[in-house]
Amino acid sequence: MAMIDAGGIRLHVQRMGPPDGRTPHATVVLVHGLLTDSLASYYFTVAPAFAAAGLDVVMYDLRGHGRSERPPDGYTLDHNIDDLDALLDRLGITGPVHLVGNSYGGTIAFGYAARHPERAAGLTLIESEPATAAWAAKLGGILRRVVTQLAYNEPDAIAWITANRGHNTARLAKGAARLARETTLGRDIPASRVLTEEQIRAVRCPVLGVYGGDSDLVDLVPLKQALLTDFRPVVLPGHEHSVLVEAAATVGAHILDLIRSVAGAGAGAGVR
Questions:
Q1: Residues 86 and 48 in one domain
Q2: pLDDT, position 200
Q3: Position with higher pLDDT, 46 vs 268
Q4: Is 270 domain-assigned?
Q5: Averaged pLDDT score across all residues of the chain
Q6: With the C-alpha atoms ordered 150, 102, 71, 2, is the resulting torsion angle positive or negative?
Q7: Beta-ladder partners of 265
């Protein structure tokens, strides 16, 4: 565990390498989702398998999440992309990396790849999409409900979540309520700068999209296929938005396949 100063904000970082001490052949950076998520969703699912496969695995808590610093403001998508950029610089990772993002983490990862195409060897979006005007409107609606129904009606909301979803989910919801109540996150994210169609098309690295078969994000697959040069969709039937946790082994295997295919292409992207 380490706390890294990423350009004025301290971020909690965990890093794993091959357990046998061999030199990693590529770096994969794991970016988690919003509000109830943290790097733990990777630490207890795919990260150990990635390290065992010979990868340098970097995961971190987004600003305001987990053990990272929680400033009162500064939560736009650009702030999170800047954090990722600064973090890689502080860690001395200069070559192309494989970016994996779950939910909002995928939006951050895609934004980073659009801004720094030379540093993205491959990109995996798990139940995620690039930042567009439609995405901002959808996130705005979700965050408004979080603020009104959870952050400012916390006792009743937590009691219902405990009764219907269990104590662990209720604990995560309490953290989300505090983040929404004490910061400008709920206003900042919907007001974020979004990508143009041209900027989305400019992402040329291989992009893996992993979706639950019962998720509404499956409907966006044809659009991504039309916009992206190398988009590889995987749909897992019987799952919804929590596919990373529910089908970790399958999701992880698809990500490793993508990383191996990039290495096999002979371009050397992501090789350290």
A1: yes
A2: 97
A3: 46
A4: no
A5: 90
A6: positive
A7: none
For the chain, the first-to-last Cα distance in angstroms comes to 22
CATH number of residue 121's parent domain? 3.40.50.1820
Torsion of CA 108, 111, 117, 120, to 10 degrees: 20
Q: For residue 46, what are the CA distances in angstroms to 189, 214, 252, 256, 268?
A: 27, 22, 5, 10, 23
Q: Give the CA angle between residues 230, 115, 244 to the nearest 5°.
A: 55
Q: Is the pLDDT of residue 150 over 80?
A: no
From 141, 170, 191, give the residue that closes a domain.
Answer: 191
Model pLDDT, residue 105: 98
- What pLDDT is stored for residue 155 in this prediction? 72
pLDDT digits (tens, 9 = 90+) for 152-204: 566 766 665 567 666 666 666 777 888 888 899 999 999 999 999 999 999 99
Tokens for 49, please give them: 């398998």
- Over residues 237-245, the mean pLDDT reads 95
Tell me how far apart the alpha carbons of residues 59 and 42 are, in angstroms, rounded to a whole number.
8
